[in-house]
């Protein structure tokens, strides 16, 4: 009989930690632990939160009668490590060091590998991360920015993009590694990736001012005007960074990062809201068009996923602009916990070898 595996998965976000325990592909419980600004403001750095978050996870496992010893592995969401190719990675010392210092910056997901490792150590079981946001499968040609001092980087919702792309391929009885897809993750940040035969060969950097604007990020900007604003004396460096990430996009025009609220504004006749929301769809469609060029027009499907993909009117605007390229498929929301479990299971079952960071 086939062996069964029990996996704890941990997905730390900026204001929450989502956890679940899976018996093979079946979630036996799932919980979102919310952290108030007050709780988190005690900590200077993201890394300093790890013990606080780990202790709550252990408490919840205990409350749900999950014996730590019953777990076969712990899988955390991977963070801003050095660029790596997609897959499941064993947490090792070098990774822990880079997650701790935030080698490419601070991000709540840096805690995923750290907490997974801490819990795994208690029971002498392996800890893994899967498809972190730094998955980098870009081709050399895509790295050239046009200014030698600046190289383009891949920062992408790889976990959800790859999980949805695999799920879609399976539904079409194809291997992800045999087809070409364009995947647009429409969340708080937006990344649009060109997937060629299982690799994301180009994508906009979703954290740092590339691609479409998003609910709270500016996306790409006219650079001359941006330089002028930086030197206008009106804003500090931190304030400028905040205008690009955090207070950019929908927030800067409409004072909300909630696409549902924008939908309500439009229903109430707010013309500015309509124009701005429409512009976000327009920029996403343009980015999909760029990916189609990267894939030389050989596109087996366009996938829209993430929270905003629930908005049928919004996805219709995009579809109208890009359906000439390929069929559009909608996978609303994200299933990152399941994606983490699937990544762990592929290794435990010997279908994939864990990679070394
Ligand atoms: N039913 C819905 N209809 C329209 N928009 C929605 C719906 N549900 C969520 N959203 C929007 O989706 C956005 C958040 O998406 P999501 O939850 O994927 O992002 P996140 O996990 O916070 O960030 P990220 O995906 O960048 O990691 C918000 O703007 C939210 O308003
Ligand atoms: C791709 C970066 C993840 C995020 O939106 O924070």
From TrEMBL:
Keyword Oxidoreductase among UniProt keywords: no
EC number(s) per entry: 2.7.2.7
GO biological process: acetate metabolic process
A cellular component annotation (GO) from this entry: cytoplasm
Gene Ontology molecular function: acetate kinase activity; ATP binding; butyrate kinase activity
Subcellular location: Cytoplasm
Keywords recorded for this protein, A-Z: ATP-binding, Cytoplasm, Kinase, Nucleotide-binding, Transferase
Catalytic activity: butanoate + ATP = butanoyl phosphate + ADP
Family membership: Belongs to the acetokinase family.
Family annotation (HAMAP family): Butyrate_kinase
Protein name, UniProt field: Probable butyrate kinase
């Amino acid at each position: 009989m086939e062996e069964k595996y029990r996996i704890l998965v941990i997905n730390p976000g900026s204001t929450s930690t989502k956890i679940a325990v899976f018996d093979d592909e079946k979630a036996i419980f799932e919980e979102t632990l919310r952290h108030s600004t007050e709780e988190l403001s005690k900590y200077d750095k993201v890394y300093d939160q790890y013990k606080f978050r780990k202790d709550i996870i252990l408490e919840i496992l205990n409350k749900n009668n999950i014996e730590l010893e019953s777990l076969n592995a712990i899988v955390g969401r991977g963070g801003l490590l050095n660029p790596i190719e997609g897959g499941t990675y064993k947490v090792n010392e070098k990774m822990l060091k880079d997650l701790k210092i935030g080698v490419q910056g601070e991000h709540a997901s840096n805690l995923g590998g750290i907490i997974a490792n801490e819990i795994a150590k208690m029971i002498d079981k392996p800890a893994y991360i899967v498809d972190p946001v730094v998955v980098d499968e870009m081709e050399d040609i895509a790295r050239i920015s046009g200014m030698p001092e600046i190289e383009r980087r891949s920062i992408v919702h790889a976990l959800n993009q790859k999980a949805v792309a695999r799920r879609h391929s399976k539904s079409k009885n194809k291997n992800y590694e045999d087809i070409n897809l364009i995947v647009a993750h429409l969340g708080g940040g937006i990344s649009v990736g060109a997937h060629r035969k299982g690799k994301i060969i180009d994508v906009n950097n979703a954290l740092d001012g590339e691609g479409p604007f998003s609910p709270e990020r500016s996306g790409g900007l006219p650079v001359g005007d941006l330089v002028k604003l930086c030197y206008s004396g009106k804003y500090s460096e931190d304030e400028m960074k905040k205008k690009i990430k955090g207070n950019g996009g929908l927030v800067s025009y409409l004072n909300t990062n909630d696409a549902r609220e924008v939908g309500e504004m439009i229903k109430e006749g707010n013309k500015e809201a309509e124009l701005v929301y429409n512009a976000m769809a327009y920029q996403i469609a343009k980015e999909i068009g760029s990916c189609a060029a990267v894939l030389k027009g050989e596109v087996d499907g366009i996938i829209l996923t993430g929270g905003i993909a629930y908005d049928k009117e919004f996805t219709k605007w995009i579809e109208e602009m890009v359906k000439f390229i390929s069929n559009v498929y909608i996978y609303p929301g994200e299933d990152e916990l399941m994606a983490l479990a699937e990544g762990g299971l592929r290794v435990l079952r010997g279908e994939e070898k864990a990679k070394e960071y």
